[in-house]
Every structure is written in structure tokens, then in C-alpha cells.
Specification:
By secondary structure, the chain is of the alpha/beta class. It contains twelve helices and 15 strands. The protein has helices at about 40-45, 95, 125-130, 140-145, 145-160, 175-185, 200-205, 220-230, 245-250, 275-280, 295-305, 325-330; strands spanning about 1-5, 15, 30-35, 60-70, 80, 120-125, 130, 165-170, 190-195, 210-215, 235-240, 255-260, 285-290, 315-320, 340-344. It binds zinc ion (2 copies).
């Protein structure tokens, strides 16, 4: 089968013929029909998040099941499906409690194993990880759900517990941030989008953000946000993954507010400092958000089916597998707003 492969950190990925994946007991092999190009893939390619080489990237996938392993009961050949970027083992206490997104034995296609920039991809523990798609959701729209959209949904809904009329601040309007804007609006929140890129802010406005703030000067942005929200946001999300932005996000909260960290803080950023004096004095809550378990997808898909959320509105570019490697490498520089999806 054809797959996008790279042999070394930062080496331009190329399309090659590789063997089709095995289908062990409990697993499913999915014929990939669409797969998103995500900054997490770029982090792995640049060596910030090491992977075994040679490597096939890709983790935001949708497609059709073509093989199932022994013991799979809820997934059949021909099913239209997607999977979370964190796949649980299906056996441990956390998986059994519906918390597969933090499974200690987790498997991430495109990181711990070959990913979805390929004609086929293997997903273990299919009964735990495979999500069936509603008929009205096409593969390109579904590919946009897997990582950034689902992560943003969990950040806003489960951690942020946002409600109608509450203020939601979204720092960074890439894929995850724009998803958070859309989810916040669907739930009736008032949304302030912050970014350094006028194009990204414009996109956030088109997706329903009530206010847009230039975040080039973080101190000024916090002041502006606090004024706009009459004392601070109820929920603030760092969708970038920058120590300075994470701290600004915490500073922008009202008392009893909630900061949700969505952007990865890898490498040197792992030691990010937050203003813990404010966390104590204002009784703030600080959460990390790491994808979303398959078991939590139905609530999100219900909003998609009812037309309240449309992930395909995030997709601004659809490309072929031959262009996927170049699209990944192009993330060295800020790109156009919205999501790029590879269609196979
Ligand atoms: Zn597990
Ligand atoms: Zn991703």
C-alpha cells in the first residue's frame, strides 16, 4: 500500500510502497479515506516528540473498516468510523472507567505506531476505540474530529464546564482554538478569541467569536480581555502551548475561573510556571486536556447531527497523499488559518 514515510528527523517525508498492517486479536484495520495534518505530527517530525524511525505520521483519521481481529464484537467490515488520537488498551482500570484518554498502555497511531498518512492503518482494542460515524458526516469532516476538535470539545465541556452567557477566552486560533470557539458558541458562551495573526482572528470571527483580541503584547491582551469580560473569563484555554501564553491565560481568569491547557508543552516548555499565587487567592482550577475517549464521542456527534457543530467548517484545504509530506514540512512556518485534510 502507499504511505507517507520519513527516515530521519526533519527529512522531507515521501510516498512509498509499504506492507499492509497486520490485524492482531482485538484490532481493526481501517482503509483511510481522510486524515488531518496536525501540529502534533510536525512536533514528532521535528524530533520534539520522538518516534521510532522510519515513521508514518497521521492520527486524525476517518475511513472504512477492512479487517477485524479475533474477538472484536462491536465493529464490522464496512463500518464508517473514526478513532481518538489516544487509543486505550481496553483492559485497564482507567479504560474500564471510560478514561481511555489517559490509559497508561495507550497506543497513538502516528506516534507509538504507524499512522494514517497511508492507505490503511491498524487500531488496537477496536471495541474500546472505534467510533461509528453518523450518516450525515463525511470522511473529511470526520477527520477533523479526531484530535483537535475532540480535544477542544473535552476542554470546553468536561473541564471548562462552560454554560450559556459565560465568558470563554481562547488563546491561539489554530485547529484546536478554532474548534474551541465553535464549541463555546454552540453551547451559548460568549467567546473572546486571541491570536497574533489577523487571518486567524478573522477565521475565529467567521466561526462566531464575539470579540477578537490581538495577543502580540500578552500584558495588553490580558488587560483588554479583563475589560471586555468585566473582570475576567470564566474559562480560558491555552490552545497554543506556550509558557507565556499559559501564564497569561491564568491571569485572564475571573475568581473561581478555570484554565485548561490544550496546547502541548514539550521539551523546554515542560517546566512551565503558572502564577500559583492567583490560583490560590482566586481559587482557580487548572486542567490538562489530553484528547477524548471514544466513549465520550456520542455527545459530541449528537451536536454534529443536530447541526449545532459542523467540523467541516474548520477545513480550509483538502489535498492528496502526495502533498501530505510537504504540508507537514510547511508547518515550520505559520500557515493559512483552518485545517488541512488529506483525502485518499
Ligand atoms: Zn487502558
Ligand atoms: Zn493532532
Amino acid at each position: 500500500m502507499r504511505a507517507v514515510v520519513y527516515d530521519g528527523v526533519g527529512q522531507l517525508p515521501e510516498v512509498r510502497d509499504v506492507p499492509e498492517p497486520d490485524c492482531p486479536a482485538g484490532a481493526a484495520v481501517i482503509a483511510v479515506r481522510a486524515t488531518g495534518v496536525c501540529r502534533s505530527d510536525w512536533h514528532a517530525w521535528r524530533g520534539h516528540d520522538p518516534v521510532a524511525l522510519p515513521h508514518v505520521p497521521g492520527h486524525e483519521l476517518a475511513g472504512e473498516v477492512v479487517r477485524i481481529g479475533d474477538g472484536v464484537t462491536t465493529v464490522a467490515v464496512g463500518d464508517r468510523v473514526t478513532v481518538p488520537f489516544v487509543c486505550g488498551c481496553g483492559r485497564c482500570e482507567l479504560c474500564r472507567a471510560g478514561e481511555a484518554q489517559v490509559c497508561p498502555e495507550q497506543y497513538q497511531p502516528g506516534f507509538t505506531g504507524p499512522g494514517s498518512f497511508a492507505e490503511q492503518v491498524m487500531v488496537p482494542a477496536a471495541d474500546t476505540n472505534v467510533v461509528h460515524l453518523p450518516d450525515g458526516l463525511d470522511f473529511v469532516g470526520a477527520a477533523a474530529l479526531g484530535c483537535r476538535f475532540a480535544t477542544a470539545f473535552r476542554a470546553v465541556v468536561a473541564h471548562g464546564r462552560i454554560g450559556p452567557g459565560r465568558w470563554l477566552a481562547v488563546w491561539g486560533c489554530g485547529g484546536a482554538g478554532l474548534s474551541a470557539v465553535m464549541v463555546g458558541r454552540a453551547l451559548g458562551a460568549r467567546v473572546v478569541a486571541l491570536d497574533v495573526s489577523p487571518g486567524a482572528l478573522e477565521r475565529a470571527g467567521a466561526l462566531g467569536a464575539d470579540a477578537r483580541v490581538d495577543a502580540t503584547d500578552l500584558v495588553a491582551a490580558v488587560d483588554r480581555l479583563r475589560a471586555l469580560t468585566d473582570g475576567g473569563a470564566h474559562v480560558s484555554i491555552d490552545a497554543i502551548g506556550s509558557p507565556a501564553v499559559a501564564a497569561a491565560s491564568v491571569r485572564s481568569l475571573c475568581r473561581r475561573g478555570r484554565h485548561v491547557q490544550v496546547g502541548l508543552l514539550l521539551g523546554d516548555a515542560a517546566a512551565t510556571a503558572l502564577p500559583m499565587d492567583l490560583v490560590v487567592a482566586h481559587e482557580l482550577e487548572v486542567y490538562g486536556s489530553h484528547g477524548m475517549a471514544a466513549v465520550d464521542y456520542p455527545a459530541m456527534l449528537d451536536l454534529v447531527e443536530r447541526g449545532l457543530l459542523d467540523p467541516s467548517r474548520l477545513v480550509t484545504r483538502v489535498i492528496g497523499l502526495d502533498e501530505a509530506g510537504a504540508a507537514l514540512a510547511a508547518m515550520d512556518h505559520p500557515g493559512p488559518p483552518g485545517l488541512t485534510v488529506v483525502e485518499l
